[in-house]
Amino acid sequence: MWKIVRQIARNGICTEAPPEMAQASGAAIGAIQRELLDILGQALAIRMVDAGSCNGCELEVHAVANPYYNIEGLGIKFVASPRHADLLLVTGPVSRHMEEALKRTYDATPHPKLVVALGDCGCDGGIFGESYASCGAVANVIPVDVMVPGCPPPPLEILRGILTAVRRRA
Amino acid sequence: MMNLAVQRLPGGLPIWHGRVTAEEWLDTAIAVRQGGGRLLALWARTDAQEVSVSAAYAVLEGMLWLQLPLQGCEPAYPDLAGIFAAAARMQRAVADLNGLQPANSQDRRPWLDHGLWSAPCPPLRDSATPWAQAPTRRDYPFVRVQGDGVHEIAVGPVHAGIIEPGHFRFSVVGEKVLRLEQHLGYTHKGVEQRFAQLDPLQGHRLAGRVSGDSTVAYAWAYCMALESACGVELPPRATELRALMLERERVAAHLADLGALGNDAAFAFGLAQFSRLREDWLRLSGQVFGHRLLMDRVLPGGVLGDLDAAQADLLRRQCDAIEAEVQALKVIYDEHAGLQDRFLSTGRVTPGLAAQLGLTGLAGRASGQAWDVRCDHAPAPCDRLPVRMVTHRGGDVAARVTVRFEELFESMRWMRLLLESLSAGPIHTPLQLPAQAARGIGWVEGWRGEVLVALELADAAQPQRIRRCHCHDPSWQNWPVLEHAVIGNIVPDFPLINKSFNLSYSGHDL
């Protein structure tokens, strides 16, 4: 037990004072976090839907939850059911096999039903495009509020996209 | 080579290609099986020039790529599922994508095709060899388990976490899993048809997006196939930088999994610590190579960017720093009774079962299957800097955790040696596509296991040079074994067992 405590104590809270981020992106993260808190007041629940991606975007969504970006520290939480979600974070391209699942997920989400399409493939189909098996962009299947391009978009851009969607409806 | 007429393909790895008859197809499969070899991949080609089915085997000497030409409009080929269990799903995929059925196969259920694809099916058939089949939507016929108190739990395709989509059907009694049946194909997005529309010199970008967590492995395998088809040899430094990025990808994946495995056993501390280390790791990759996940850094003919001495030093020092932290965390994991209680004996695949079913890659090595392309055939730069293979015989979640820790330490040791001894010279060589039809195959030990890309180029007179490009993920072999690994375990341990394999959906579904 003491080793765990020591490990925690030794590493401290890197969200506030990460050495590399202080110069580079630390200020930007702080500003985004404050703004999110101001708008939301309390909490935002996100349901993540992989509608056919290569899994690259998912890796960066995971990174948003690491101690550096610390999305949960803001009261933003990834939830297990669309019925608990305010916002859908969707990666693409939307495969034809996921088209119905995505529509049903959207239907099950209560208002405000925000949708952020993540990554080049979610924005416009990316390198996979539209084909016998791919519907392409997320917007071809459900209404999209904000698009976050990138292959994959880095964590900071994902945070920005979430903020933009929230701000637009606020 | 079993008296077959085979020909060695250009490139650094011992790979032979040959055309066979139906009889030889079957005899070779049996001989490979009896000699302890493995089926790596099975795929088909159906275009105006050729209808054939291909199999790639790993044998002690290297890889054997056999191609069986087929005649007629709806030809059958000998079924390999009785010899290699892993062939069953690959043959079902061939039926879906190419419309070729094995003779007398037992399981003819569609696998990748859910009956929702638009326009002419099967999708990889050339219009010159049409085979009309109207898409029909259908429910997947799961195998039903009958008995007192048996009920089903259906999970997916949209899963509860931040993971890829797929469907799992559990038949359980109380908490105990009697049977798991997977239904995959949800992320099928037409990758192999898309390849045929791309310029060969652009194909590495698509290959690098077959499975985002293995982008270096796929891009390298694709480039290896293309370079073999072109008969081009790489400058040593280009190969070394590719190998360096492959190990960085391996470490990044292991850091993520080790944290997630702690988290799935209710040890959130592990996730917080390992995801912090992973972020440090990705940031330096972004800083030095220009992309956090190293996408599009491996190009046909070499790599995108070079390293200077200061950057090499940064990478070396990061290996020291992260390794020291992981050593400390390993002690914590090892000594944590609650964690070990969840890990030990959970989701066990015995070495015997692993050999029988063809478990491969990292999960295979955790069940005594000692295969690793880096060690078995020592492609450059592993020839001058040998990689030590990590194996374990436990076959449970704990073994797969241990193999990840040990492989991470080995990668760190190896990367430091490589960084201290990088060759000087160019990082790229110009690539001239051959005028005639050509083929090549790439074989790379990614973090999950061996990644294969088989490429067939048409001659220069054809408008589309890529005739067929098949990408194979080790998940094909390992998904069916996961069904066995969970038998008799409790439902709440499934996420932990699943994560300990961490198989790819996108790499499998294509």
How do the helices and strands line up, and which of them pair or pack?
The complex is a heterodimer of chains A (170) and B (510).
Chain A: H1 2-11, H2 19-23, H3 26-40, E1 44-50, H4 56-64, E2 76-78, E3 87-91, H5 96-108, E4 114-118, H6 119-124, E5 146-148, H7 155-169
Parallel strand pairs in A: 1-2, 1-3, 3-4, 4-5
Helix pairs in contact in A: 3-7, 4-7
Chain B: E1 6-8, E2 15-19, H1 22-34, E3 38-46, E4 51-59, E5 62-69, E6 76-77, H2 87-98, E7 101-102, E8 150-155, E9 167-173, E10 176-183, H3 191-195, H4 203-207, H5 215-230, H6 236-264, H7 268-289, E11 298-299, E12 302-303, H8 309-335, H9 337-343, H10 351-357, H11 361-365, H12 373-376, H13 397-420, E13 438-445, E14 450-457, E15 466-472, H14 475-485, H15 494-501, H16 506-509
Helix pairs in contact in B: 5-6, 6-7, 6-13, 6-15, 7-8, 8-13
Overview of this structure, please?
The complex is a heterodimer of chains A (170) and B (510). By secondary structure, chain A is of the alpha/beta class. Chain A has one domain: Rossmann fold (3-Layer(aba) Sandwich), CATH 3.40.50. Helix content of chain A is 43%, strand content 14%. Chain A is built from seven helices and five strands. Chain A has a five-stranded parallel sheet, with helices on both faces. Chain B is α+β, with helices and mostly antiparallel strands. Chain B has two domains: 97 residues, NADH:ubiquinone oxidoreductase Nqo5 subunit (Beta Polymerase, domain 2); 319 residues, Cytochrome-c3 Hydrogenase, chain B. Helix content of chain B is 39%, strand content 17%. Chain B contains 16 helices and 15 strands. In chain B, the strands form five sheets. A five-stranded mixed sheet of chain B has the order 1-2-5-4-3. In chain B, helix 5 packs antiparallel against helix 6, helix 6 packs antiparallel against helix 15 and helix 8 runs antiparallel to helix 13.
